[in-house]
């Protein structure tokens, strides 16, 4: 190992073309860290597999080798694999090879809480814990470079899709801010389902120094019409939010814009939440069908909000802001009507008892894994038949600021 490999690592990774980041990372790991080879695996859209990119990662791989180079490696299931454990736990996992004579280190690739995938590094000798911090630092650099590169090439998105994606789903995925995010005060994750054919359901969030804003939107209709409606809704909400508007004004502006375009024929059921990071106070505008459930300890209960008209129905609706409070340790789960109104083949509504039961079962999982579990439970509830409606699940764990002492209403 060289005395200062990190300068070489940074130069190699950031000089690589967008599609060549995995190969550049692998080459630097073989040259400066003694690895036999390394491979970057990205999580697929359904969050079921880790898909290898830049498979040709030996010391002879060129600096611009693309993610399809090599092409022989198979996707790795997230469940019951070493790679999947690294992704799920967000910890470095050691996989012994050749009875411990060699090893693979599986390193999470994560940026600001967004889980991108796993960097798997094959080392010629047994694991040495003292080497892990350096390799974890390399994984952090690789994750950040991949996040930037993803906006300049299609190759990573091609790799992450395992079947053909509809145009409506393409629009919805491109709208997302990410699939997970975390800060000192919270951890947050969301998922769309069915991943490759979602229509009008979407979620959005934005974080600044004092607030987190989260929205869940369900555009009416199906296919491309629903996707375009949701795209217009999310863009209108973002435009208002980025102009400094509060929740009420965000809803009012989106309502006006949707009505001007569709004259009430198409509406977007939307839930808007704004979290005060310093206090745990949550303000809300409930403009439609998405619901909020709170898990406090082992108790699951809906957060009761006064339902208001969906965005776009009349164009002059006056929305009202409501509030509730969170305590450290609380979990919020936001679901679209494709979740809480889903019916089993026998006609039982999912939100009646199965959803609260599933929420309690996830209380020991972090939000990203909880969302995966809830999606699996939803599909199982349908007995693995096709969903009748697309669905959004967003999970937020609230830790709050250290020493948070702001007053809150009794009993909340």
From TrEMBL:
What is the superkingdom listed in this entry's lineage?
A: Bacteria
Supply the InterPro entries for this chain.
Bact_Sigma-Reg, GAF, GAF-like_dom_sf, PPM-type-like_dom_sf, PPM-type_phosphatase-like_dom
Q: Where are the transmembrane segments?
A: none
Q: Where is the PPM-type phosphatase domain?
A: 183-398
Alphabetic keyword roster: Hydrolase
Q: Which Gene3D superfamilies match?
A: 3.30.450.40, PPM-type phosphatase domain
The entry's protein name is PP2C family protein-serine/threonine phosphatase
What organism is the protein native to? Answer: Actinomadura miaoliensis
């Amino acid at each position: 190992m060289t005395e200062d490999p990190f300068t070489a690592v940074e130069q190699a990774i950031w000089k690589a073309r967008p599609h060549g980041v995995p190969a550049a990372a692998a080459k630097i790991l073989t040259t400066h860290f003694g690895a036999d080879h390394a491979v970057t695996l990205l999580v697929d859209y359904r969050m079921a597999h880790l898909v290898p990119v830049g498979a040709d990662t030996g010391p002879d791989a060129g600096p611009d080798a693309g993610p399809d180079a090599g092409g022989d490696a198979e996707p790795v299931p997230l469940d019951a694999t070493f790679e999947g454990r690294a992704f799920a736990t967000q910890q470095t996992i050691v996989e012994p090879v050749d009875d411990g004579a060699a090893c693979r280190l599986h390193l999470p690739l994560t940026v600001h809480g967004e889980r991108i995938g796993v960097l798997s590094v094959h080392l010629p000798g047994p694991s040495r814990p003292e080497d892990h911090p350096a390799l974890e630092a390399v994984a952090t650099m690789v994750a950040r470079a991949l996040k930037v590169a993803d906006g300049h090439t299609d190759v990573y998105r091609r790799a992450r899709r395992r079947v053909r994606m509809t145009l409506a789903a393409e629009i919805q995925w491109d709208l997302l801010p990410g699939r997970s995010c975390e800060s000192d005060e919270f951890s947050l994750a969301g998922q769309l389902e069915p991943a490759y054919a979602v229509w009008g359901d979407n979620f959005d969030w934005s974080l600044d120094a004092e607030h987190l804003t989260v929205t869940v939107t369900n555009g009416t209709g199906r296919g491309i019409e629903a996707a375009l409606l949701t795209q217009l809704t999310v863009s209108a909400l973002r435009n208002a939010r980025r102009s400094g508007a509060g929740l009420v004004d965000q809803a009012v502006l989106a309502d006006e814009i949707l009505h001007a375009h569709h004259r009430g024929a198409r509406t977007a059921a939307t839930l808007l939440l704004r979290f005060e990071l310093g206090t745990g106070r949550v303000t809300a505008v409930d403009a439609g069908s998405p619901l909020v459930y709170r898990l406090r300890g082992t108790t699951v209960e809906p957060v009761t909000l006064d339902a208001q008209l969906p965005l776009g129905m009349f164009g002059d609706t006056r929305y009202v802001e409501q509030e509730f409070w969170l305590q450290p340790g609380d979990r919020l789960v936001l679901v679209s009507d494709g979740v809480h109104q889903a019916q089993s083949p026998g006609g039982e509504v999912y939100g009646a008892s199965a959803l609260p039961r599933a929420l309690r079962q996830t209380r020991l999982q972090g939000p990203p894994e909880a969302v995966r579990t809830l999606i699996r439970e939803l599909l199982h509830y349908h007995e693995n038949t096709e969903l009748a409606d697309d669905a959004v699940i967003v999970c937020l764990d609230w830790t709050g600021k250290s020493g948070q002492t702001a007053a809150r209403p009794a009993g909340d």
